[in-house]
Amino acid sequence: MRIITREEVVEIVTETARRAGLTFEEFMADGEADLLTDAECREDWLTYRNFLRRQ
After folding, report:
1. How large is the greatest C-alpha to C-alpha distance in the chain, in angstroms?
2. How far is it, in rounded angstroms, from Cα 29 to Cα 13?
3. What is the distance between the alpha carbons of residues 21 and 30, in angstroms, rounded to a whole number?
4. Residue 25: helix, strand or coil by DSSP?
5. Is 55 a residue whose pLDDT tops 80?
6. Most buried of 2, 29, 44, 53, CB within 10 angstroms?
7. Distance CA 34, CA 47 (A)
8. Above 80 in pLDDT, residue 40?
């Protein structure tokens, strides 16, 4: 089993967001507002949102 760090999660979702034309901050805001329409962004949000919310 491999443990993934918050930094790695941020890198993953930042790249997904970039491909969709979003910044990480926009990705987070749109995720919180349930406005993500890009399928990959939505999938990453649903997968990692609890992890990303923890500061």
Report:
1. 33
2. 13
3. 12
4. helix
5. no
6. 44
7. 14
8. yes
